[in-house]
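Table S2 (text version). Query chain:
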Amino acid sequence: MNCRNTQDTPSMIAPKLRRLLGGLRQTPLHPQWLVFKDTRQQKQRIAQRIQGRLLDIGCGEKPLTPFLSAGVNYIGLDYPPTVAKGYSGKADVFGDGQRLPFADASFDCITILDVMEHLPNPEAAFGEMLRVLKPGGILISQTPFLYPLHDLPHDFQRWTGEGLSQFTQRHPADLIERHHHSKPLETAAILTNLALAKGMLDSLHAKHPGLLLLPLVILLVPIINLAGWAFARLLPDEGFMPLSYTAVFRKRA
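Corresponding structure-token output:
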């Protein structure tokens, strides 16, 4: 008799947990609620600056689409090995952000959102983006600062706000806008919840007894989220502990 084990293995359970969490991302029950709750407003703010021909490097599912005006020609570029790993995407062109397959001065605007940290040579990428950007064109980058390591081994660097401004010392561009995301206590809450969630996933994969803490973690996550959100609004925000930055550069004429 051929007996088949119908119990879920850790490798089967983890994707189910991710799907479940995906449905909770707009609620305090999700470990990254404080990250996701403002993403729509961030995309709207970015889209307001975009006109003409847009190149989105590391476009994924082309998330800016719903927010762009009708006259924008949205071209998405993604990296073939990234797609090969199973990431879904809607790229129009495949290529390397450090060697862009476009002619000089081809675009009015370029976005590179949460991608720069994954490039081994961001200086080369910045130069390439300016090469294909028209004079006076806009480059919008979004980069993590205190956000944990991810997509290893392809996570190479972080920048402070001042570090981002240094690109203008080495390239023909001006920094015209920069703002940070997440207040200090929100960042602390996000990092705490991510550490707890990662610990649970690691315990699941390793069949570690730490998984016994899961009921407590499920209880703690919304408490930490709501406490971080509430207390952050009672204290000043000097930008000393940001989760990430958005920077807007203009190519010099």
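Notes on Table S2: The first strand starts at residue 53 and ends at 57. DSSP finds nine helices and seven strands in the chain.
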